[in-house]
Amino acid sequence: MPVNYTPPAPETLLPVAGVALGIARAGIRKADRKDLLLIRLDPGAAVAGVFTQNRFCAAPVIACREHLAAGAIRALVVNTGIANAGTGEPGLAAARATCAAVARLLACEPAQVLPFSTGVIMEPLPVARIEAGLPACAADLREDNWAAAAEAIMTTDTVPKAASRQIKLGGATVTITGIAKGAGMIRPNMATMLGFVATDAAVAQPLLERLTREAADASFNCITVDGDTSTNDSFIVIASGKAGNAPVADAASPDYAALQQAVTAVAAELAQAIVRDGEGATKFITIEVRGGRDAAECKAVGYAIAHSPLVKTAFFASDPNLGRILAAIGNAGVEGLDVGRVRLWLDDVLVAEQGGRAASYREEDGARVMRQAEIAARIDLARGAAQATVWTCDFSYDYVKINADYRS
Amino acid sequence: MPVNYTPPAPETLLPVAGVALGIARAGIRKADRKDLLLIRLDPGAAVAGVFTQNRFCAAPVIACREHLAAGAIRALVVNTGIANAGTGEPGLAAARATCAAVARLLACEPAQVLPFSTGVIMEPLPVARIEAGLPACAADLREDNWAAAAEAIMTTDTVPKAASRQIKLGGATVTITGIAKGAGMIRPNMATMLGFVATDAAVAQPLLERLTREAADASFNCITVDGDTSTNDSFIVIASGKAGNAPVADAASPDYAALQQAVTAVAAELAQAIVRDGEGATKFITIEVRGGRDAAECKAVGYAIAHSPLVKTAFFASDPNLGRILAAIGNAGVEGLDVGRVRLWLDDVLVAEQGGRAASYREEDGARVMRQAEIAARIDLARGAAQATVWTCDFSYDYVKINADYRS
Fold it and tell me: For testing the chain A interface, which of B89, B331, B343 should be mutated: the one with the most A CBs within 10 Å?
């Protein structure tokens, strides 16, 4: 069960004009589950994406990068079950064959199709099953189909993840709706596992690319479940341009700021949902680091804490064994860190200062916070004005169970 | 139960002339367990050490560095139960008070005593209990007491770790005996949790310092259990000079090479014993990376694999889900890595080449190797001549159990 996360009711996921979604049960790896998603875009949509930094990036990521560079994207196709990663040249050919099959069905060019895969690494993609499933996707294409789409991209997720909101942009009502999947192998670097956010706002292509990077950095690039960056991480933002707003073309405009904020809010809601549904998670942990010389060292401290198995198991056990957090801070590789000035709080309880336990700290206060399902660890490095936030979950028996059993 | 490790029989641990050990049950954190060790050195011993790189280094580590710089060490004192880390100025005062108590007992200066602590972080060191226990240690001082000493430094270790051997050095018989402790928070960086190796060889002080660094780099700095570098890691080499050999004073001499090799062999045996007894370990994994541009990138790849919870749980499950190893290699941050040239073997089974699964690979071969208690993962990066080895263990339910329950 996710930590304090309930998927939104299907009717609250607002359709985005110009973006239709259709799903199918293609039997890609397991029979009779939604495992194939087709997203069709009306002509004129702007699309931008950020992708995994893993050197063993998956074949579909290679194809996505190529096709995005060419522009004029008309469709996205997503399969679960098989990641098509660690598959070499045959994997790239399989990704291209998938795009060609979509292009035939929708009467566009293969280079106008973005492919995505998620699932087991190093197994061949069953292209024939995808081809066979695509007509059912096409028959199912509807703009009010986001809830089914969120289900169709799940792997070890226990719940679908989706979010939606509307804002006013110069008199026009603009809708933003997104879905994401991911529960393990989560430590995105420039992107998430799979996240798709669509808006009907009109946005100039270069600005959409900037907005996508900024939204990723403040959402999917702030989360970690187990520190493993996947081979397939992709985050895509679609702007269909149907809302009737004056096209957003100036990064200094209020419209850009408003849209950037709204897309980031949807992306952050999805990113946090991934952590809340993290494999085996029983707690949602926010790590706020401030007082750093730059955001990079704040994030390094946040991730050092979020990746420490000892810290994560202490959260699982509700054990205020908080020296483990100090040890993780000390391991973050912050050059010249004066540990005597570092302060650590759990929620509002001051735990450590002057290199040791705070005089005011009482074990029962730490224990009280550690029992909560949502905990904020706050660290002040006291050497600058930068800050960063990392969201993570605890580390339980079930993480081991899920990952020891995943293929069986 | 450790993976293929049985502690050596006490009578096989050879005494080192000039090095006497005494233990006590001081009740430092739990009643009636061996938790205090005193090591007395005859005058003239050379002593060198390497220590944790964690910025929150423990108070005894600070004191050790100071006292080693002054030289003429006459005693080491080790307590378990409390790490005296994250304890600020009062912690440093407690470490100094411990040294003073030993100095009074042995009629030397406090600066001639090296203090070591291991256990829970951020709790105050009960100096009075240590002082009260020291006379029992002094009464127990014997050169043939290594087996009891190995027991007295254990925390979550399930077995004591010790090793011993003899070599000939220019006609003289030289003995090397060592002990170590550690099972979790293990990813040493320039040192181990606690490791003490003594030899009766005569070695010049500057050369002993070099030998200590080299031995650590090829032993304790090659292991990881959970990627957490402790606040207290310390590795100490003592050379009592009683063996009657011509003092080793030239790094280019065969005597230096022979002694360095023998000390490294003892240190590596102790380091591997720590991994074999890693918290919850059911398998011992050797990761050999070759074909790198330098040893650092080979070690980065080895540690990326050894730290991936997904890889470690797959080893635990005996599941040849080997794409997880490729993903970890891709995450190691090796600039310009050509994944199409990387090859991966499990023991002698070629698993991956040309960016994907090897044509010759059969799942049953991978499954056969994964079922073994000892597995070698071999990676060829095919871009240089450097190599490195990392030793690690798998990640099981019991790791979570041990670390969720440690303080209770």
Answer: B331
